[in-house]
Amino acid sequence: MSEPGIIKKLSEEVVNRIAAGEIVQRPSNALKELIENSLDAKSTNIVITVKAGGLKYLQIQDNGTGIRCEDLEIVCERFTTSKLREYEDLKEICTYGFRGEALASISHIAHLTILTKTATAKCAYKASYENGKLKAPIKPCAGNNGTQITVEDLFYNVIARKKALRSPTEEYTHIMEVVGGYAIHNSHVGFTLKKFGENTDLKTPIKSSVIENVRIIHGNAIARELMEIELEEPLLKLSLRGCITNVNYSHKKGTMLLFINHRMVDSQSIRKAVDSIYSTYLPKNSHAFVYLSLELDPRNVDVNVHPTKHEVQFLYEEQIIEKIKSCIETKLLSCNSTRVMYTQA
Ligand code: ADP
Ligand code: MG
Questions:
Q1: Tell me: the pLDDT tens digits for 126-149?
Q2: Which one of 30, 113, 204, 238 has the fewest beta carbons within 10 angstroms of its own beta carbon?
Q3: Residue 99, ligand 1, Cβ within 6 A
Q4: Do 197 and 204 form a contact (C-beta atoms < 8 A)?
Q5: Structural domain boundaries of the chain?
Q6: Which residue's alpha carbon is nearest to atom 8 within ligand 1?
């Protein structure tokens, strides 16, 4: 007979590290949180620098509001936020963040340094964190308005995860996807992505447009076939805008960029619906480029399903998907008769 196990409470550090691993599964998840923080801070320019697919080094510099020096002591603790005060606020949340968990999580699984300056502060301040706490006293120093966050040696203390993420190239691809998606969706904000010490891989200008940014990121073959779509459904409290390729364009993999209330998310049901419409028009096993931005009544969207916030549940899904399908179908039909042939120059 085997003995029963002895039940013991896990240490706070272990609990926090496990929780952190749920939010941050790979460098691109951490970067998504950091980009959302920069956007919440009203930045107009965001520069991202990466080493080894973000596993060694991931830095994001913004020109947003900055963080007040007096908040630096607790900013990396769990559940500290400037965005949510009451549970009831969750219903109408319009910032990306609200849990106050991102910086805390990252500080439990990486070396995190913040350099920040608010517009009214005389100088910038620099602080380094470990397990949610300051590692050393906060240092005054020189710096621009805004915030620079540096994440080094991600998963240094989560050996299994580190082993699972063996390919910096693959991680960099995920990072490109996240930066590319946010750059297209936030075309008024300038985004720059580069590998440390190398040339810039991606750069969108400040106050650009969605189509211009698609051209920069995905190339002219897609951009020249784009059509804008728009839809307002007051009854469903739905508003949709986006860009989709016409029937001249098809690709074996295709691209689907989906934002719901400005959050980059994935939805199998929307993906399937869009594919089913295009399948009538495109060659077999080929797909379109589709960028959709849905705005739904925040009260009908549950962003609280999972800590990574990738999965978003919303009310009236079936009706909303039907509307999206007919909007795309109408647009494709209207252009099918004006098919253009490009000749090679
Ligand atoms: P949340 O975004 O859910 O509030 P985070 O852990 O991501 O939680 O961030 C904690 C707090 O740190 C934010 O509420 C915000 O006040 C501040 N913060 C984080 N990043 C930035 C930034 N880039 N610029 C200004 N403030 C920031
Ligand atoms: Mg956040």
A1: 999 999 999 999 999 999 999 999
A2: 113
A3: yes
A4: no
A5: 12-204, 221-336
A6: 100
